[in-house]
Design a protein that fits this description.
By secondary structure, the protein is an alpha+beta fold. The protein has 11 helices and 17 strands. It has a 6-stranded mixed beta sheet with strand order 14-16-17-12-11-15, with no helix packed on it. Strands 2-1-9-8-7 form a 5-stranded antiparallel beta sheet, sandwiched between helices. Strands 3-4 form a two-stranded antiparallel sheet. It is globular and about 75 Å long.
Amino acid sequence: MRVFSIWTICAALIIATFLPAAAAFAETKGNTDKETANLKSAIVIEQETGKILFEQNENKELPPASMTKVMTLLLIFQALEKHQISLKDKVNVSEHAASMGGSQVFLEPGETMTVDELLNAICIASANDASVAMAEFLAGSEKAFVANMNREAKKLGLTHTHFVNPTGLPITDHYTTAHDMAVMARALLQHPKVLHYTSKYEDYLRENTDKKFWLVNTNKLIKTYPGADGLKTGFTNEAKYCLTATAKRNGMRVIAVVMGAPTPKERNKEIAALMDNAFAAYMTKPLLKKNKTVALVKVNKGEHAEVPIVTKRPAVLLLKKGESTKGLKKSIQMKGTLQAPIKSGTVVGHFIVKKKNIVISKTPLIVKENVKRASWWQLFKRSAGSILTH
């Protein structure tokens, strides 16, 4: 009887040890195990491939609070990359921007800040006034900027997202989902310079003046969670405590989103557990770097007869720990014949990796530079040369 009792106790301990971890990372919708019972919705994705590692009520439309600023930041960094603005540009603060409540850095009407300073205020202190100042600077008005936010959401294929402001301050008809937030975060991380700002725990605004303002990051995970370096917290009475977080370990970056946690402590605990499980269960294997030339492809009526096509982003395999990479088949799949002119960055095909005839990796291939249409003289010489060689 004693032996039976000992074995019963041992079995119970084993189950208690391993069952929660397995349940917390079950890849099923509507999972309501105790690991995520206090959340309205959650999702975890791998950044390079975009593959979903965990989901729970991921398409439930909810107020995102200040996680809204992920989209605001995406539009800012797109403008920086296109050289439409620079970090040194000076932004004049309007009365409207200065009037924003909630999280703020107390900008004054007529005050001038650089784009760099305002990015610090948005990323570290979640400043609503800085967000509206940047919105007006980029689009001329907050309303026009919000239209751009919704346009970009459609471009990203987000079907459960609608913005009414660039801050996340409570307002009717302003909503998104955990899934859509993860997609936005993935797009933002295509601009890695954002991590320079979101990874700072503290900084100062107006540092060399008598109005020096201490900025402290609202995302405490960057100080407590190994590998965490972003992205954006959120809280309103309606939204409760939300967080879109990212962390990188051993070359693998994950994005995790939780919405509707009852307390900041619970929010951080839940998201840390989700990311822990992702890192414990999965690994990535790099195949090709970003901008790697994979082939020379003929262009119909192009200035050059052939152009290089390159990877738009790194080609990466997402694998379960211990999974074999034997038997992989790699191929290039073009969308069709290339026809000049072609704008740089146009996706013209995919680098495909299959295992047992199942696609396990699909990386977009692009034309790196503009492909101009050939002049009639170039086409004539090419045609004549072709005739002479036959």
